[in-house]
Structures are given as structure tokens and as C-alpha cells.
Amino acid sequence: MDLSPNNYTEVCKNCNGTYKKLNDLYNKLQRLNRHGDESGHSAHLCIDVEDAMNITRKLWSRTFNCSVPCSDTVPVIAVSSFILFLPVVFYLSSFLHSKQKKRILILPKRIQSNASLVNIQEKYS
């Protein structure tokens, strides 16, 4: 197979099934590593297996550009933006639907301050 940059789509088409099987096997081995098998013994992956899978995944996604975009991206962005705009919608609707009261200053009917009382007393003395 010719591996020129123009022919990378052929690599994606021809090797997609094999890559998925390899990736599934590796994920199964990782789960066994974390949780152990039925007998309770955990299987440890060798560093060369992990390294080989990391290189394979890097080649698959970066070099050959065969990675499929995650299908969860669109719903996550939609829900996140909805939750982000909820406070804006709440405060805007609260402002628009509330009755805006004009503040009216109520002047006191008694003498306003002691200073003005002193001024009045000084005038009459």
C-alpha cells in the first residue's frame, strides 16, 4: 500500500476494522488492569504494550487523521450553553416583567436639623 499523504484516506478505510478491534482489546485489558478479573487478580499491562498503543493511537489520529469526531460534543455544548444563558434569561425577564417603581422622596414635616433650629434662634435673639 502506498503511504503518501494523499493516500491516507485509504489507510482509514482499509484498517478501520482492525484498529477498532485492537482498540477494544486494549480497553478490555485496561479494565482488567483496574478492576481485576473474576478471580480477583489484576493483570498488569507491560509498558511496551502501552507505549505501542499510544504510538498507534497517535498515528491513527494525527498522522493519518482517521479519528472520528466525538458524537457527544454537540449535546454537551448545547446543554452547557443553555445552562450558561439561564441566569441571563432569568434576570432579563425579571427586570422586564417587574413593575418599576419610581422613588419618591418623602420630606419630613418636622424641623429638619438642629443647625437650622440654631439659626432660627439666633435671628430672634
UniProtKB/TrEMBL annotation:
The chain crosses the membrane at residues 74-96. Keywords: Membrane, Transmembrane, Transmembrane helix. It holds the Pfam family OSTMP1. GO terms for cellular component: cytosol. PANTHER family: OSTEOPETROSIS ASSOCIATED TRANSMEMBRANE PROTEIN 1, OSTEOPETROSIS-ASSOCIATED TRANSMEMBRANE PROTEIN 1. This is Osteopetrosis-associated transmembrane protein 1. It comes from Bambusicola thoracicus. The lineage of its organism: Eukaryota, Metazoa, Chordata, Craniata, Vertebrata.
